[in-house]
Amino acid sequence: MVKKDDKPPYWNGRFPKGDPKGTLKIENVVASTGIDQELNLEALAADLPGTEYDPDRFPGLVYRLQEPKAACLIFRSGKIVSTGAQSIDDVHAAVELTFDTLRALGIEVPGSPEIKVQNIVTSGDLGHPLNLNAIAISFGLENIEYEPEQFPGLVYRLQEPKVVVLLFGSGKVVITGGKKPENAEEAIDKIVSKLTEYALLG
């Protein structure tokens, strides 16, 4: 069982005071795995407490865990998607608990199926209000989407790391599409560098 860390994901004292990377917080980790066999979801829904299964609305069975707080979406094909966890460790703990539960029901689960992180959503704060109109003009339109009538944030697509950054006028940021926590740190460094280059930070 993976020990749960009570501290926020980025609390380790390695960022100087005022560094936006020190505000980063993982909001959601989505990962996939599978057991390579077809499952009877109707029977699972009957045997597993705390599950939701309504095939008319969603094709998978939703299995919610309290510790760690996450949900595993179990599909008939044997594919399993973990969502809602706030760290990589919690993803592994949630998936292993789900495997153990399936084994207890007599379902054969291989020793250690591969768990692949698909998306890490991270939030942060640059510490300064942002002029999104000026950023849209300065950053160039090829990697920017900004339509304030439809969405209050500016969408900035980075190629390296390959993530999408949502910038808000308050200075808040949301980074999505990462495969590892360090991707958010790299993205913040690039955003701050670019904003500083165009004198758009503070």
Task: Give a short overview.
With 202 residues, this protein is an alpha+beta fold.
Describe this structure in words.
- By secondary structure, the protein is α+β, with helices and mostly antiparallel strands.
- The protein has 4 helices and 10 strands.
- A 10-stranded antiparallel β-sheet has the order 2-3-4-5-1-6-10-9-8-7, covered by helices on one side.
- The protein starts with 24 loop residues before the first strand and ends in a 5-residue tail after the last helix.
- The N terminus is likely disordered.
Number of helices: 4
Strand order of the largest sheet: 2-3-4-5-1-6-10-9-8-7
What is the first-to-last residue Cα distance? Answer: 45 Å
- CA radius of gyration: 20 Å
How much of the sequence is in beta strands? 25-35%
The helix-and-strand class reads alpha+beta
Overall helicity: 10-25%
Low-confidence stretches: 1-9
Main β-sheet description: 10 strands, antiparallel
Mean pLDDT: 91
The number of strands is: 10
The general outline is: elongated
Helix-strand string: EHEEEEHEHEEEEH
Detail the topology: elements first, then pairings.
Layout: E1 25-34, H1 41-47, E2 51-52, E3 61-65, E4 70-74, E5 79-85, H2 88-104, E6 116-125, H3 132-139, E7 144-145, E8 154-157, E9 164-167, E10 172-178, H4 182-197
Antiparallel strand pairs: 1-5, 1-6, 2-3, 3-4, 4-5, 6-10, 7-8, 8-9, 9-10
